Amino acid sequence: MILPPPAAITTSLFPLIDSTGVFVGALGGALASRRDTRFNFDYVGIIGLGMISGVGGGLARDTLLQRGLPLALAYPRYLYLALFGALAALLFGSSVGPKMNRAILVIDALGLGFFAIAGALRAQAAGLGFLPCLLLGVMTAVGGGSLRDVFSGRTPSVFERGEPYATAAAASATVFLLMLHFGVEARVASPIGVLVGFLMRLLSIRFGWRTRAVHSYDL
Asked: Mind listing the pLDDT tens digit for each residue in 107-142?
């Protein structure tokens, strides 16, 4: 599948989407770390894990693209946004009270949509085809949370039986890339792609959609 040339992406679209994803991802990651009763992280742990959640996926994406320094290192605003998101969760997370779990889920779903589109946009701007753009979109969406899980001492949840997180990211990026392929402008396709990932993530939680564990006797 042939995507539009990189020039079709406006210069302001990617930074806006990527920056929003970094802040929301850091906020959601730090909120999730606050409620972790297994390790009882201190403020350093919560801020660190929040920042990893915010910039981890983008760092992995940019490292694979090999187009200069990763954006989070070349442009300090990404690190500041991740820091502010983590600090917001640290300072105000307790005020959420019993609604914290719901807030985390909504923030996490929103971050997934933004990251999936940001990753696909970044790969498309590098001149890559449909499948590489899709893969890097998914990597951007799940990379930060996976690194947070690793640093927290657990298996990345995206690899285990559970809610279809990576599937929602793939659906988000796929819809966005297909719309680009059929001539829809990026500024129109982007919010629709974000919305697809956001809604699919929330619907999977609402209706209890779960992926199935694969055992040797299933093959």
From this structure: 888 889 999 999 999 998 888 999 999 999 999 999
Q: Are 53 and 79 in contact (CB under 8 A)?
A: no
* DSSP three-state, residue 214: coil
Q: Where are the alpha helices (DSSP H) in the chain?
A: 13-34, 43-65, 71-74, 77-92, 100-125, 130-151, 165-181, 186-206
Question: How many Cα atoms occupy the beta-carbon half-sphere of 52 within 13 Å?
Answer: 18
Dump pLDDT digits (tens) for 144-195: 989 998 988 888 888 877 778 899 999 999 999 999 999 998 889 999 999 9
Residue 47 CA neighbour count, 13 Å, CB half: 11
3-state secondary structure at position 91: helix
CA distances from 162 to 3, 83, 142, 149, 204 (A): 33, 29, 14, 15, 10
Rounded Cα distance, 117 and 193, in Å: 7
Q: Which residues, in sequence order, are CB contacts of 101 under 8 Å at separation 6+?
A: 35
Q: Which of 143, 137, 161, 141 is nearest to 215 (CA)?
A: 161
Please give the radius of gyration of the chain, using alpha carbons only, rounded to the nearest integer. Answer: 17
pLDDT tens digit string along 14-26? 888 888 889 989 9
User: How buried is 76 (Cβ within 10 angstroms: 0-12 exposed, 13-18 middle, 19+ buried)?
Assistant: exposed
